[in-house]
Every structure is written in structure tokens, then in C-alpha cells.
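Technical appendix A lists one of the benchmark inputs used to test multi-chain prediction within the project. The record comprises three sequence entries:
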Amino acid sequence: MEARLVRFGAAIAAATTLLAGSIGTALAQEKYPSRPVEFIVPWGPGGGADQLARLTGKLLEAELKTSFPVVNVPGATGGTGMAKLLAAPPDGYAMAVYIADSHALLAAPNARWSISDVVPVAVMIKAPSFLFVAKDSRFKTWADFEREAKANPGKLKVATLGFGSVDDFTLSYLEAKGIKVTQVPYAKPGERYVSVLGGHVDALYEQAGDVAQFLKSNQMRPIIVFGKERYPAFRDVPSSQELGYDIALPQFRSIVVRAGTPPERIKALSGALAKVAASGEYRSFLQEQFAHSDSFLDSSQGAAFVQAQLDDMKRAAPKR
Amino acid sequence: MIEILTQLGAGLANCFTPATFAMLAAGIVVGLLVGVLPGLTLVMGVILVLPFTYKMDVTASVVLLTAMYISGTYGGAFTSILFRIPGEPIHVPLLWDGYAMARRGQPAKALGWTLVAALGGGLLSAVIMVLLTQPMATFALRFSSPEYFAIVLFGLASVIALGRGSLANALISLFLGLMIGTVGVDAIYGSHRYTFGMPLLADGIEFLVVMVGAYGVGEVLLRLERGFASKPIGKVENARTELPSMKEIGALKGTFLRSTILGNIIGIVPGAGATIASFVCYGIESQYGRRKKEMGSGVPEGIVAPQAAATASVGGALVPLLALGIPGSGATAVILGAFMLHGVQPGPQVLLSSGPMVYTIFASVFLGILLMCLLGFFAIRPLVKILDFPEAVVSAFVMILCFVGALSIRNNVTDLWLMIGFGGVGYAFEKLKFPIAPLVLGAILGPLAEESFMNSMISFSNDWTVFFTRPISALVMMLTAIALVLPAINQMRARRGARA
Amino acid sequence: MPSSPIPASLVPKRSLKLMDTNKLKKAGPYAVVLVVTAALYGLAGQIDYTPRHAQLGPDFWPKLCLALAALTCLYEIGRALLRKEDAAEVSGIAEALDHDQIEAEAPPKEYPALLAAGAGLTLAYAVLVSVLGFVLATFGYLVAFMYFGRYRNHLVIWIASLAGTFAFAAVFLKLVYVSLPRGEEPFAQVTQLVMNLLGVR
């Protein structure tokens, strides 16, 4: 046993000597980034955040000449991935996708991290949310839906992501205005969509990009968009603002690094992302996602935007 | 009918264009590898391949992903049967009889049975898929939370009935498994449950960690304790009996039919998928099968039922994907992504508007299954040879394979600790004659059970009678009741017999 | 749980006193589970969430599971303590098979020291993988485990371990990137070297 340990030790020693050369070269490099940057996606593979990371990672690689391997760390509405980001040293070699749903957790009193723990590098996507109904739904327009909801409070069902989510904030706001519906939370997107297509719920709260396939094949249609103005692709659908509801919590997906990362590294990333966002490939991605074409915000604008979103969410969050 | 056949023939011809065929073959091989490696889940594998499809045409890319999906339900059978490491949750039921059969000295035969099961189940379900896409898709829409809950409950109940040891022990093991499933942030309220302030636990305990730990690591520890002195297996029967004979297959045609049709239906229901299909069909076989008394001791029925169901569920899962654009599982969600990437909208009109493409995909499913089984056939012999290596060497690699699975599932070392912990649990359960299966099953299906139960309650204002008033769920609930009551009666009868 | 391989029904009649300790022994594991469920039930009551009107909370499901588990335990404890005779625990389908096997084979020789060594090695791996990095820790584990497993072909052990480590590294660092531990300095350099050798950028 001892002899084996000695031999094992000898092997390590030999390897270390071999390495002496490469250590020197590694330290000499000051350039950032000089090794792969881990791109944390706090969501499972296949979702919107994941698609964004894989596309941006690919385009960034061409821009900064290093790889951006995507690491999925799903769970706890993004909380687990955030914990991984916050555990890494603030050297710019780990960054994460940060989206509105995770941001909403900060509106609750018992949040697990705070906005000052991270620095937004850029906001990549902003997309408005809608209420959708199945194509043969008896609700032709928002007015139909509103009338029925007011006549029978709590009888209509709306599929959402979960309690305490952005979806919940919006519906709570509507409830305060007299439109009371029953919220049915479906954590899995597939089940959420079946619920409205199969008539198990009356409407679905979602962003258009996530249900694009149902919109193009005419299985679903929007009845209201939450925001200041109508969305170009759905000219006939009224916006919440014009109906007198001052609620607009868009889905946004940003990229953040840990607070304390050297500013020049944040600038390097933000600059590269600006070029990524201007590329044709990225612009067509935004269109597919039914996002705003002017989604991109750089580091400083992004920080202000994220803070303003949090204030809005806190205002809309259900008070009990 | 004739029209379908001509379309399918044209599709088959399309499959043989070099580009498409290369993708089909590549997909099958990569899918098998992904299935074999625990920790590299099927969904992860499909995602990793997705970027390569950006430059291909839509048919080739969907053929590639579908082929991976098909063979991903088969690859894990090898590790499950040879080393007791299920690569995917779908292969847990497979190890109950498969590993037992391998340990009895017939590893090649056990693998042969999975091959036949995958072939039979896959082809039959492909036929159903081609003929019935549209009506089946509409049927799938009728499933809502109460139906999901009923199906999951049936899956749970059927495993309790497996009854190695006392019924009470099985129940306790199951409830502990369900409790493992509650750890983390709950899906509905977002509240932290049993996380003890640990960020990783907030994401819950991955069932892969429970599954690979309790089965794989626990088994290696048990055999290490015996100094790796167990009888060398494989030598006795490395012979030519890899594939079961036609006569043997014929004797199991009931099992084949039941499992394939049921697996197909469960595959169609979005959100259920291959895992539940394989558990439920194993359960059905142990309740109603001809050799129900011997299930778990290494009988072919126990291998055929889960494997046929798992492969059949693929054909099922493609139905709502193509006809409605609804992804029923993680892997189909990625396939949907590939369609969308190329501007094709799956949906009710896709059969009409993109007929040739759809039939090429259908044809590729047939061809893919054949190709997969051919590859599997040639892989059996070399893979079984691994068992001839010294047990210490093989076990060392098995352990590392388990470790990598734990490390890679969420990129976190804590999962390694958890898995080793569950290895200890598996060892202790085995020593104390406590059944492991209900624990693992509870951890896998627990979150599904809870979510569908809670959603039913929310949706129907806490009226629990919905489970019995909706026709589909009532039917499944009735089967569940039978599954639970029968073993209890058997147990009482046995006890009375022992006393007399 | 009885550790003796002889089925209870074959044991000759016991004295009353022996039977009492036997009863307690039977009830013991269930009592332990009962205590654990009670503790977890208490914890479930402390789950922090915002209640919603007329809807079940996130504590309902765990409480339901725990209550059912506790009921099962109580039933078993009651059965163990109240039952007059010690009937054999024949119940499941597979039980009979188990007995057959045990009677046919002599109980296998056991090596608790080996088990302890293997378990210790495994725990050491979990501790060291973050320090040494995946590559070094895996290599060490493979070599040590094969020796612990009473295999003594030195050449095979070292070559298989080296090749195996490289194969794992190639698959999981190059082919599919999973963020395996790199280790701390100076060991991280070994990981880096292997990555360079494999051509990972």
C-alpha cells in the first residue's frame, strides 16, 4: 500500500515537472479572454434561455476567439444556476443567462440573492407577454373574456408558470381591477400548451415566441398584449395600456457576471455582445422569438432597465 | 391505405439518399452512445447535436434527431443489464429481470431479448403512428392533470405489487422515495422544501443520482464485500444463444402486444413518455402476465415488457409532435426546435402541406429501428465479453462511470456526494432485504405525481372526486385499486397458509 | 431484520423471553422510520410560502406521504408486538426464490475490510476530485480500486487506468463539454495539460 502511494506520488511529481513549461506561458498571458468562458444557463436544455445561450455563445466565439461552453444548471427558477455563478471567482470566466422569471424571485421577501450580487453585461431579448386562447374558443376578443370573468369571478382558468412568477403578478394586477380568474400553474411548457389546446383551461399567459408553432398553424390566437402599444405582428390585438391597465412585465433575457468583475472585462464582453446583437443571424432569431427588434441594451443601460423592472414587479406583486 | 403506402414508399426512397441515410446512421450510433453513458441524458445528447443541423435541410436534421431519440431508448439497456447501471430512467425496470438473467449466466440472451423487444415494439408502434396520427393526436388532448395523476399512481402501485419481501417494507420504501422527490423548490409555489439552506438541494435531488447510486454503486459495494469472488458469468453460455428462437418469441406474443400498444398510447400522452410507459408495462405484466409469479427473477417477460413499451413510446411521442406541434418530452421539444429552425410548422396541416417530408420521417423511423437492432446485434457479443475481464477492473470503470454521471448531470460535486450516499442506501437496503425499486420509482415519479395531483385540486377547486368522475382517469384508478388490493389478499392468504 | 440466512420458520420454538426481544427487534426498524417521519412532518410545517385562498399548500403532499408512511409503520409495529405466533414472513412472489437460492449456495465469504477500503476510497474520491481535478483523481481511483479488488496484474492495472482516464477525459472534456472539476493549483495544471493534449481550446 505504501509502495503504491510512493509510486503514485512519483507519477505526480513527474507530471508536474513536465508541466513547468506550460505554467510559465499560462501566467504570461494577460489578454482576456485567454481560456474558455463558462456560459451558465440556469434552465434546462431546449428552452428559450438555452437557445439564446447557444446562439450567442457560437457568435461570441467567432468574435472573441475563445469557446463559450454552455453549462445547463437548471432548478429553483434559476436559483441553482445563480448559486453556481456566485460561487465562481469574479474574473469574467463565468457568465450566466438571467431572465425575468428569476428576477421575479427578488420581489419576494425571502430572495436567495440580491440584485447587487450581479452586474448585467447586456440585455439580449425583450419580448411582450400575451394571453392566448385556443382557435375555437368562445372568447372572440378580450372584451368577451373580460365580461365573462367579471360576471363569474374565479370561474375562468388561466394556465401560468407558477405562483409567485411574473405571470402571477400580472394576473394579480388584473384581479385587483376586478378581473378574477383561477390560475392553474403548469411548470412544464408542454402541459401548459396542451391545457389550452385541449380546453382544460380558458387561456394561457405566455410570450409569443414560445408558442410560435401554434400561432403559425392557427391553433391559438392572442386576445391581449401586455404593454404600452400593440405588437406589429398582431395589429388587431389590443394592448393593456389602451384598455386602461397599466401593466407591462415583458420577458427579458440578459447576460450577467458576478459583481466585482473587472470593468474592462465587462466592457470587452458587452462590446462583443453588441456586435453579436447587430448580426443578421441574431436579428432573425429575435424575429422568430417575436421579440422587440430593439431589444439590445449594453451594460449601463441594462443595469438601469433591470432595476426598473424589479420596481415594477414589486409594485404588481400580490400583497397579502 | 394505398395512398399511405405509396407515400411511405416514396419516403423510404428519400431515406436512401446519401445525405439522409448518413444522418440516420449517425443518429442511431450517437443515440446508442448517449443511452449507454449515464449522466449524458437523451435530452442533453439531442441538444448537443442540434447545432450541427443548422446547416442541413429540415428532413435530414429531423431524421438525425429522431434516430437519436429512437436508439436512446435502447442503448441504456446494455449497461442496465450488464452492470446494473440504468443509463436513463426508462431502463430501471429492465434491470430487475435483465440483470438477474445476466447474473444467472445468460447475459447475451438477456440482451437478445431487449433487441427483439425493441424491434417488435418499435416497428408495431411505427405502423400505428403512420395509420392513426390524426385521431390519436386528438385523443391525446383529452388528457389533463387528473388523468396524469391516475396513470402515475398506477405506475407506483404496480411496483409495490412486485413484492420482494413484505408489502409494508415496499410501501415505506415508496414513501421515502416520494419524499426524496419533494426536496427542493416546489413547482407550484416556488417554496423551498427540505433544502436545509443548500443551493443544490433547492434544485431537488436528481433521480439519476438516486437511481445510479442505489443500483450501480450499491451493487459494486456488495460485490466488493465478497472480494469479487462471485462465480464468473458468461463463460457457461457465451455460446450462440443470443437471440431467442421464434418459438420463444411466439410464447410471449401477448406480452409484446400488450406492452407495445400500451407503450404507444402512453407515449402519445404529452408529459408521460417512455419512463412511465416502461414502468406501467412492467407493472401490467407482473399483475396480469402468465408468469407474474416469477417476475423479478430473470424471466424474459420482465425484459420484453419495459423495452417494447419504451421503444413503442417513441412512435407515440411523434404523433402529438407532428400533428399538433406539442412536444411531449424534453427530446421531442428539441426536435420541434429543429422543425421551427427551418421554418416548418408541425401542426394539423403538416400532413397535407409537407406530406413528403412527414412520410420520409415516418419511413426513417422504420429504417432506424431496423438499423438500431442490427447494430445492437453486432454489439452484443463484444459487450458481453467485457464481463470476462477481471471483476475488479470492470467494477473500477463502472464506479467511474457512475461518478461521471453524477458530476455531469448538474455540473456539481455535491451530486457526487449524494450519489455515494444513495450507494450506501442501496447497499443497506439490499442487506436488510428492503426493496430498492419503490424508492427509486418514488424519486422518479414523485414530482410528477405531486404536480398532477396539486393541479387537479387547483383546477377543480379541491374536489377529489374528479379522479373518479372523468372516464379515462376513473378507468385507470380502478386498475390501480385492483393492483393494490390483489397483493394484499395474496399476502393474507399466504400468511394463513403458513400458519396452518 | 434477521441477518441469519435460515428462514424463521425453520428455527425451533423459542422461549417466551427470547420471543419478546425478537418482537422488539422486528419492531425496531419501523420505530426508527416512525421517528424520522415525525421529524420530517415537523419540518414540513415550517415550509415558508405565501398561502393562497382555499388552496392546498406545498406542505400538503409531503405531509400526506409522511402520514401514510407513519400509518404503515404503526401497523407493522402493532403487528410485531401483538401477534401471538411468529409466522414466517412469506408474502412476496420472489421470497420463495430467495430461500431456494440461499439453501442451494453456501453463504458467500465476506470481507468487511475490503468493503471499508472501497467505501473509504470512494469517499476520498469525492473529497479529492475538487482538489486534484477529475483527471488525476480518476486515475488514482482506478489504480487503487483495482488493487483493492484483489487484482494483481500490475501491467494491466496501470495501462488500463491510464487509457481509461484518457478515454473519459476525451469524451467528457472534448467531445461533450461537461464542467468536470479542474482541481486546484498546482493540480489544475495537469488537467490543463491533458486538455491541451486532447486539443481542447
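The longest helix of chain C spans residues 112-148. Helices of chain C lie at 16-44, 60-82, 95-104, 112-148, 154-175, 187-198. Comparable benchmark entries are summarised in Table A2.
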